[in-house]
Amino acid sequence: MKLMFASDIHGSLAATEAVLTRFEQSGARWLVLVGDLLYHGPRNALPDSYNPAAVAERLNQVASRVIAVRGNCDSEVDQMLLNFPITAAWQQILLGEQRLFLTHGHLYNPDNLPPLEPGDVFISGHTHIPVAEKRDGLFFFNPGSVSIPKGGFAASYGMLDEGVLSVRTLKDDAVIAQIRISP
């Protein structure tokens, strides 16, 4: 199963349009959104083309193909605009014997993990910094941010394709980081 991951849109219509273009081009079955979709938050500057209502409208066009979790900037008011659920703090996707644990990263994070088994994949956003690594038998993946990247990285998203998780630049699809999670 091919999956696309995006995090920390923060109400940027330009970033949303770029994500949806990449999603359409990717052939991914599901668009997995790991939080902070509509609001920019009090610690972030307004992102380029800030338009939360238009972002909601565009994301609703692919609602049947979205799996999402709530970020620290998402609220029940945001849920009123979206046609897919965003209020769960975490979700899980099972890939055979392997589990993808999805969360934004403000509640569960690499320093405060939920109960996981060796080989499981912990997927989060929140930091706006891309990660694809294995530590202590677990895989850690963060697609970075599509609208407000940090740490000197470009705006980025993630893909799971044929057992490889990769972080890719939104602009030119270059691979920033990747890791094989299954044989």
- What is the N-to-C succession of helices and strands? EHEHEHEEEEEEEE
The CATH class label is Alpha Beta
Instruction: Give the low-pLDDT segments.
Output: none
Oligomeric organization of the protein chains: single chain
Task: Write down the CATH topology.
Answer: Purple Acid Phosphatase, chain A, domain 2
Q: How much β-strand is present in the residues?
A: 25-35%
CATH superfamily: Metallo-dependent phosphatases
What is the rounded distance between the termini? 14 Å
Number of strands: 11
List the helices and strands and how they pair.
Elements: E1 3-6, H1 13-26, E2 30-33, H2 52-60, E3 66-68, H3 76-79, E4 90-95, E5 98-103, E6 121-123, E7 131-135, E8 138-142, E9 156-161, E10 164-169, E11 175-180
Parallel strand pairs: 1-2, 2-3, 5-6, 6-8
Antiparallel strand pairs: 1-9, 4-5, 7-8, 9-10, 10-11
